[in-house]
Design goal:
This protein is of the alpha+beta class and 484 residues long. The protein has helices at 34-44, 140-147, 157-160, 163-170, 176-182, 230-239, 243-253, 308-313, 332-348, 425-433, 436-450, 455-468, 470-480; strands at residues 57-66, 86-94, 109-117, 120-127, 197-198, 203-206, 212-221, 258-268, 294-303, 326-328. The protein folds into three domains: 1-46, Cytochrome C Oxidase, Chain J (Irregular); 57-355, Catalase HpII,  Chain A, domain 1, CATH 2.40.180; 425-480, no CATH class. The longest helix has 17 residues, at 332-348. The radius of gyration is 25 Å and the shape is globular. The N and C termini lie far apart (73 Å).
């Protein structure tokens, strides 16, 4: 191994890293000890603000490879050539818990993929469950605040199963479908290698003719899906709280790879309003018998991060990071996410967070943004930092126009719910699709948590569950002793 000498951040050799500079052996320490001051001041600033959600995470590098060209549906370049491998970085996470929380707690899992494509970064930011609690981003702060620690005591909502979580859920009936997923054994996992991923929101793919199709993303683990029950999850949270993080790291460190297949569901734009549900509603799934999964490509994770903070903690994802050939739908939850995620990263990491190696695109970056904290990119441009210009021969100039989906949108400007707001049908279908053991676990998990909520909240929640499925509501009520 190459001989490396310890240095300061300025590159100055350090000859004594054990003792501060003092006046005599026992005298006071001197302010001129720049080595000491540098170490302490850097240590004081080692932490950046914790993510409000998805704080606990693990990550890995790898590549994505399309099976065959998807040119019929999208002109995104990374989805065309089956011989090309597009580098990726993936971050798995829990949603509600803090950085030090356990991997196995009942919680949705984040499944975020950053594709470093030749046209810029594409971030596919999803979860391990196919639906979400809410359909409109305006409710996201309320939802997170209801799930996070109590403001007066800072006791985590989940640790004492108090009324806050169920109070919000019972008054937000659109979340019932999510509850049938979260409180099944899908809500407790111990291996990211055996976990599905979903884009949750609806996106568009656009082809060279400007024709668009709606898209739902699905990641399927090569090893299949494995879950654990509530009792094993609680046991591991105490005995081995880092099990999923360590499992991912150790597997890749041993020379093995971790593989997932990307599938999509497609829906013609013209089919949108002929469904019995709103396809752009994030609390709904698309029936696979009507919109079958189409295999797109594989993702292989084969390299661990070398520095957790620099790569996993500072990794920044945003649904607003799209590439030509992929576009947003009018999904109300997605519309808010396109602003909120990037805005969070500018606050958490800094306005130039995309210049960090883990976030920096492999594609060439040319713009007129020159200032701000941690700006270091040698963009050049001389005296010109504006557009249009003649002093720099008009560079960088606007790119050529690419095909777009020119949809006509009109309507009355007002706040309103979407029309197709049945909150219970798919929740009931989900419950009835489960086998007996899975139904038993779902009921038992709900009873265990809801049983600690206030009585009026229990009654409203049972009413909502009954609207989804009479048997589900009845069993939960009996489990809590509210029905005789």
């Amino acid at each position: 191994m190459k001989d490396k000498k310890l240095t300061t951040n300025q590159g100055v050799p350090v000859t004594d890293n054990q003792n501060s500079l003092t006046v005599g052996e026992r005298g006071p320490t001197l302010l001129q000890d720049v080595q000491l001051i540098e170490k302490l001041s850097n240590f004081d600033r080692e932490r950046i603000p914790e993510r409000v959600v998805h704080a606990r995470g693990a990550g890995a590098h790898g590549y994505f490879q399309v099976y065959h060209s998807m040119e019929k549906y999208t002109y995104a370049q990374f989805l065309q050539d089956p011989d090309k491998q597009t580098p990726v970085f993936v971050r798995f996470s829990t949603v509600v818990g803090a950085r030090g929380s356990a991997d196995t707690v009942r919680d949705p899992r984040g499944f975020a993929v950053k594709f470093y494509t030749e046209e810029g970064n594409y971030d596919l930011v999803g979860n391990n469950l196919p639906v979400f609690f809410i359909r409109d981003a305006i409710k996201f702060p309320d939802m997170v605040q209801a799930f996070k620690p109590v403001p007066d005591t800072n006791i985590p909502t989940s640790s004492s199963a108090n009324s806050r979580f169920w109070d919000f859920i019972s008054l937000t009936p659109e979340s019932i479908h999510m509850i049938t997923w979260l409180f099944s054994d899908r809500g407790t996992v111990k291996s990211y290698r055996k976990m599905e991923g979903f884009g949750v929101n609806t996106y568009k793919w656009v082809n060279h003719e400007g024709k668009a199709v709606y898209i739902k993303y699905h990641w399927k683990p090569k090893l299949g899906v494995e879950t654990i029950d509530r009792h094993e999850a609680n046991l591991l949270a105490g005995e081995d709280p880092d099990i999923a993080t360590r499992d991912l790291y150790d597997t890749i460190a041993s020379g093995e790879t971790v593989e997932y297949e990307l599938n999509v569901q497609m829906m013609e734009i013209s089919e949108e309003f002929s469904q019995s549900f709103d396809p752009l509603d994030a609390t709904k799934t698309w029936p696979e018998e009507k919109f079958p999964l189409v295999p797109v490509g594989k993702m292989v994770l084969n390299r661990n991060p070398e520095n957790y903070f620099a790569e996993v903690e500072q990794a920044a994802f945003s649904p607003s990071s799209i590439v030509p050939g992929i576009d947003f739908s009018a999904d109300k939850l997605l519309q808010g996410r396109t602003f909120s995620y990037a805005d969070t990263q500018r606050y958490r990491v800094g306005p130039n967070y995309l210049q960090l190696p883990i976030n920096r695109p492999l594609a060439e970056v040319n713009n007129n943004q020159r200032d701000g904290p941690m700006q270091y990119a040698p963009y050049g441009g001389g005296t010109v930092n504006y557009e249009p210009n003649t002093l720099s021969d008009g560079m960088p100039r606007e790119a050529s126009v690419t095909p777009t989906d020119d949809q006509r949108i009109e309507g009355v400007l007002k706040r309103q719910k979407i029309k197709l707001t049945n909150n219970f049908d798919q929740a009931g279908q989900r419950y009835r699709s489960l086998g007996k053991v899975d139904q038993d676990h779902l009921v038992d998990n709900i009873v265990d948590s809801l049983g600690n909520a206030d009585k009026p909240i229990q009654e409203l929640m049972v009413s909502n569950l009954t609207k989804a499925d009479a048997d589900l509501g009845s069993r939960v009520a009996k489990g809590m002793g509210t029905l005789k």
